[in-house]
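Exercise 7.
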Amino acid sequence: MFKIGAILLSIGMTASAAQAVTLSNSDFSVPGAAGWSIGLTSAGQNTLPQVSQVFDVDLNGPSAAAAFRPGSSAMGSYNGVTGTQSFSISAAGTYSFGLDVASKFGGQFTGPIPQSNFDGGLVQLIVDGILIDSWDFGQILYDAVERTRLMGSTTLAAGTYNFTFRLLRNFNASATSPTLYVDNASISGPAAVPLPASLPLLLAGLAGIFALRSRRTG
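Solution. The predicted structure, written as tokens, is:
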């Protein structure tokens, strides 16, 4: 009888627990985007490979971030850099994902600024082929910084998945192309299931009844 009461109490205590999911080097504080598999799309370019820089990506002050300068060798089609990391979950549910991204257009020019350099880039957050969110910075002004946070959610079964970001442009990458920064990759588990306010009291009462009966029959 005591065991039954303990089980009921255990259910009440754990029903609202949410699963913690972590990514390695999610804040990109380790140089070279360590923990992430960095690659290129089929016609992708990157003239600033795996560089860690201090930059204010999310308007919360400068911090370490991964910096890339993506581009496309196939003019007119979006190509560039991809970053992927696998993660595992043991419980099915709705998971939320996020990533801060910034685009900065700078560089030194001795003549007219090429039009291609105004393309701030198209950024995407993907989980196992599912597009969670995307943002097109469009044309950005010289020496300007544009920021966004990619975020969204999807329902997943227990298993292993890939968290992927894509930084794309439809022009060639050069030393003066916009630099894209990524920071603060995140995954949050299923939201806690709220318990009715009376449920803990009910479970405690049931446990007491089982204990009383056990003493009477013992």
